[in-house]
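re: ur question from yesterday

yeah so i grabbed the chain u mentioned. its 259 aa long if i counted rite. heres the sequnce exactly as i have it in my notes:
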Amino acid sequence: MTSSEDTLRVIILGSGTSAGVPTLGCRCRVCRSSDPRNKRMRSCAYIEHCGSRFLIDCGTDFRTQALANGVEDVDFVLITHTHADHIGGLDDLRAFNMVHGHPIDLYATPESLAEIRKRFAYCFAPPPPGGGIPEFVVHEINGNFEVRGIPIQPVPVFHGRMPIVGFRIGSFAWLTDVSFIPETSYNLLVGVRILVTSALRHRPHPTHMSLTEAVEVARRIGAEQTYFIHMCHDLDHEETNAQLPPNIQLAYDGLRLEL
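ran it thru and got these structure tokens back, copy pasting raw so excuse formatting
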């Protein structure tokens, strides 16, 4: 029998692209929509598994997302890449350091860690005490690894020409900002039951999959259920989902998954 701690629970804190939806200054139909599923903060996932609470990315909207979804602590963060909409909320994690009295582990590729050390330099060469800075312990991703008893499989993908990583945890996989998946990475996704991946818009884009491309990828991977994230304001939630098969759908902020 599976214990409650073995259950993997995911909250999609944000399903939007880097500009979010509504997009500032835009008066399009989706940006003016009253459907709450068309309100998309920057992409981020909160996961509870094996007694741990962790994030995949920590973007610009994290504080608002945490308050809206009852996120009360974070043990570690998995970083896919270092664009602002994926790491812009790291400073907000200092509140958990202060309230709960523990550092937070960051796991990222060597290239991503170098960028984080540059952009958040004050966290690693701190001023005298009293500045309220985040307390991180950094770990390089150089292949499969385990955190607090949880095996994690990095999945190399491309974001345009930029190599980034997705993550597989058991039968769950999260692949954001994808434009191309190498053949060797498809092999790492065999048997995934729930896939979360990105679908920016209808039209092709140089660094993101279009909706049509994402559907093709979802069908090839063959998960029981696929949810799309990182959508811009081109995609209306209800209309788009009506055109998709039931096992391939747009996600929305606050969507809860369990397996």
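noticed a couple things. The chain has one domain: 9-22+37-255. also The CA atoms of residues 157 and 181 lie 5 Å apart.
anyway ttyl
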